[in-house]
Specification:
single chain, mainly alpha, 3 helices, 79 residues
Length: 79
Amino acid sequence: MTRWTEARLGGYSLLFGTVAVAVGYAFSPGRGMVDTVPSTSLGDLTLAMARNATLSYTVAVVLVLGALLMLNGIVTLRR
């Protein structure tokens, strides 16, 4: 069995955090793959987010958790 060193955990944390942020952005309503609207149309973006309210909240949680994982990975690897 392999040992889970601090550097390995930091690396995986950074990797999974980056993947979570990328997936969160890809599925964010209005900007990613769901209900894509022009980036200059704030009204259309707001409507896309309102049509997919549950997804909008879920994406926000995934982005925050991914960012925290990335931060943990960076801090762990800097030590």
